[in-house]
Design a protein that fits this description.
The protein is α+β, with helices and mostly antiparallel strands. The protein has three domains: 68-120, Structural Genomics Hypothetical 15.5 Kd Protein In mrcA-pckA Intergenic Region, Chain A (Roll), CATH 3.10.290.10; 124-193 and 281-299, Alpha-Beta Plaits; 196-273, Alpha-L RNA-binding motif (Alpha-Beta Plaits), CATH 3.30.70.1560. The chain has helices at 3-9, 43-53, 55-66, 70-76, 82-90, 182-189, 209-216, 251-259, 291-299; strands spanning 68-69, 94-96, 99-100, 107-108, 114-116, 119-120, 128-133, 137-138, 148-149, 163-164, 172-179, 197-203, 219-221, 224-226, 228-233, 241-246, 265-273, 276-277, 286-288. Strands 7, 10, 11, 12, 15, 16, 17, 18 and 19 form a nine-stranded mixed sheet that branches. A four-stranded antiparallel sheet has the order 3-2-5-6, with no helix packed on it. β5 and β6 (119-120) form a beta hairpin. α4 (70-76) packs across α5 (82-90). The chain is elongated. It is an enzyme of class 5 (isomerase). Its EC number is 5.4.99.21. It holds the Pfam family PseudoU_synth_2. Keywords: Isomerase, RNA-binding. GO terms for molecular function: 23S rRNA pseudouridine(2604) synthase activity; RNA binding.
Length: 300
């Protein structure tokens, strides 16, 4: 037996990489106490937890939602349009809680007191009323006692201070829109508006075809170009009954178009206003616009 083998038997040095030969049993591993399994929250749960953990942010959003721009607050009060309100703000004629405000885009809280040109404002809810106007009522306030004002026809419809969009004389009938939305009133009285109105016009004599063609091409009245979208004879009616489609809400323009060609206008009836019609609205009656109709008017 050589020295190398003897050293191995005596527990001496072992060759590198060899394992000790132990017959002793290994101690049993203790089992860990098993609790409920942890489940990783889903993205939706995590998002919900964020909302629960930050209630102040939710309250802040609700508060900001109640705030509106100062010019809109003034417009909602019915005193002027937003554009005119900006002029008043810049000139220093508007105070919020007693302090003059000239900052454009200033946000007003529901609890703020707004003073406009020396008067405290109370914003009104926007109201939109459609009337089928009869004869012998006028939008003018200076025609004496002979003709009654159109506001009598919508009396009791609202407590808001409303006014008609555009003018109508005593002989003109048909659709007339009332509102306290000064921005909308201004929108539909601008010369470059895009909404169409349709009128049925009764003339003192038949409209010549050549005159109809000239009107269709447009014409100049008092130095202003008038664009006519369509003019045509009304089916199954005499040729003195004419349909006219144009964007102007000014009934005087309708009358002037035919007077340019030496026709006397006997009657004008507005049958459509910016998509609104007289359907289910008898002469002399009014109705509130639906939410969808209001949206449509604001988008034309």
């Amino acid at each position: 037996m050589n020295n190398k083998e003897g050293n191995n038997k005596r527990g001496g040095a072992r060759p590198a990489g060899s394992r000790p030969n132990s017959n002793k049993p290994k101690p049993a591993m203790q089992k860990r106490a098993q609790g409920p399994k942890k489940v990783k929250p889903t993205a939706k749960i995590e998002e919900a937890n964020k909302v629960v953990k930050k209630p102040n942010q939710v309250a802040k959003r609700l508060k900001e939602k109640d705030e509106i721009r100062l010019n809109k607050y003034i417009s909602n009060s019915g005193v002027c349009s937003r554009r005119d309100a900006d002029i008043y703000i810049q000139s220093g004629n508007v105070k919020v809680n007693g302090v003059p405000v000239t900052e454009m885009g200033y946000l007003v809280k529901p609890t703020d007191v707004v003073n406009f040109d020396g008067k405290v404002l109370t914003p009104e809810k926007k109201v939109y009323i459609l009337l089928n106007k009869p004869k012998n009522f006028t939008t003018a306030l200076d025609e004496g006692q002979e003709y009654r004002n159109v506001l009598e026809l919508v009396k009791g419809s609202t407590t808001a201070k409303i006014g008609p969009i555009g003018r109508m004389d005593k002989n003109t009938t048909g659709l007339l829109l009332f509102t306290n939305d000064t921005d909308m009133i201004r929108k539909f009285t601008l010369p470059n508006q895009k909404s169409s109105k349709i009128y049925q016009v009764s003339l003192d004599k038949n409209l010549k075809f050549e005159d109809l063609e000239k009107i269709n091409k447009g014409l100049v009245i008092d130095g202003h170009r008038v664009f006519v979208e369509d003019v045509s004879y009304i089916e199954n009616e005499p040729k003195s009954e004419v349909g006219l489609k144009l964007r102007s809400a000014n009934v005087k323009v309708v009358r002037s178009i035919f007077e340019q060609f030496s026709y006397d206008v006997l009657r004008i009836d507005r049958v459509s206003f910016a998509g609104l019609t007289k359907k289910n609205l008898p002469r002399g009656n009014w109705r509130l616009l639906t939410d969808q109709e209001i949206i449509n008017l604001k988008n034309v």
